[in-house]
Design goal:
Elements lengths: L2 H4 L6 H7 L6 H21 L3 E2 L9 E2 L5 E8 L3 E10 L6 E9 L7 E8 L3 E8 L8 H19 L5 E2 L5 H5 L6 E5 L3 H24 L8 H17 L4 H8 L1 H12 L13
Antiparallel strand pairs: 1-3, 2-3, 3-4, 4-5, 5-6, 6-7, 7-9, 8-9
Helix pairs in contact: 3-6, 7-9, 8-9
Length: 274
């Protein structure tokens, strides 16, 4: 195997978890979830948000098997759908936690995607999900992806961060060229790098929202529909869903996917005057 191949991770998440089913990652999980809590506080401070009642039974759940989790979903005048969630069994290897934010259609700022987990190694994902076709909109690429490209290249140079290559085709289609998908050692040094990158991406994104110009009213309905369909596609095709189904059972796994994707939302979507 070449050096390049040895530094890439192509093993499905399900197989990674099954290969080390009893690794205690409680300490690492608490550290990682603390990062998401910091991000959550910033988001709640910036936006007017209401929790959707659809998640009331999922905010803090625990199953007889020892599996636990929390799924909070919100909407507001500027935010179509915001997810702050985790699931898994950290004392037995697996945890998966997310912050994903879909903006309302009054902005064209990219949507925000962030995930951390233990599989049992540290897993991290970050991306700015475009609201337009990047190949066709080079000005959009220059505006929103130039700065983050330098960060992406710096992370590529860290030896302990191994690029995670998803075997799911749509997952790779949904990732921009500046998406971060890595496996790394679950040690403080690498967790701190993940935290710095995640907070940097969130702060940059919040600044974009603060400075965003409003989109023309006549294109907002199409933007909203595009966002909704892409979010559902990404959630429903997430390779980690197989792990959740194996651990929680299909009924519970489907409920989590439908809640995170917004498929079963009860709050109205922000209209943005369209």
């Amino acid at each position: 195997m070449s050096g390049d191949q040895a530094n890439r991770v192509l093993t499905p998440i399900m197989d990674m978890v099954k290969a080390a089913p009893n690794e205690d990652r409680t300490e690492q999980f608490e550290r990682l979830w603390g990062i998401l809590d910091k991000m959550h506080a910033k988001i709640m401070d910036r936006f007017e948000l209401t929790m959707d009642p659809v998640c009331e039974d999922l905010v803090d759940y625990s199953l007889d098997s020892g599996l636990k989790g929390s799924t909070e979903v919100y909407s507001g005048p500027e935010i179509d759908w915001y997810v702050h969630s985790w699931c898994g069994h950290p004392s037995q290897t697996f945890s998966n936690m997310h912050i994903t934010i879909s903006l309302g259609p009054q902005y064209l700022v990219p949507n925000f995607g962030f995930a951390l987990g233990t599989v049992p190694d540290l897993f991290m994902y970050m991306d700015y999900i475009p609201r337009v076709d990047l190949l066709h909109n080079i000005d959009y690429v220059d505006k929103y992806y130039t700065d983050v490209n330098e960060e992406f290249l710096r992370l590529q140079e860290i030896p302990s961060f191994k690029p995670f290559i998803s075997r799911d085709l749509y997952t790779r289609v949904a990732m921009t060229p500046t998406a971060v998908g890595y496996a790394a050692d679950p040690v403080e040094h690498d967790i701190a790098i993940a935290e710095e990158a995640g907070m940097s991406r969130l702060d940059r994104w919040l600044k974009w929202v603060d400075e965003a110009e409003k989109t023309p009213v006549e294109i907002r309905a199409a933007i909203a529909e595009r966002d909704h369909q892409i979010r559902r596609n990404i959630c429903e095709r997430d390779p980690a869903n197989i792990v959740a189904e194996d651990l929680y059972g299909k009924k519970m796994a489907d409920l989590l996917v439908n809640t995170i994707s917004g498929a079963n939302r009860s709050l109205p979507r922000p209209t943005g005057n369209y």
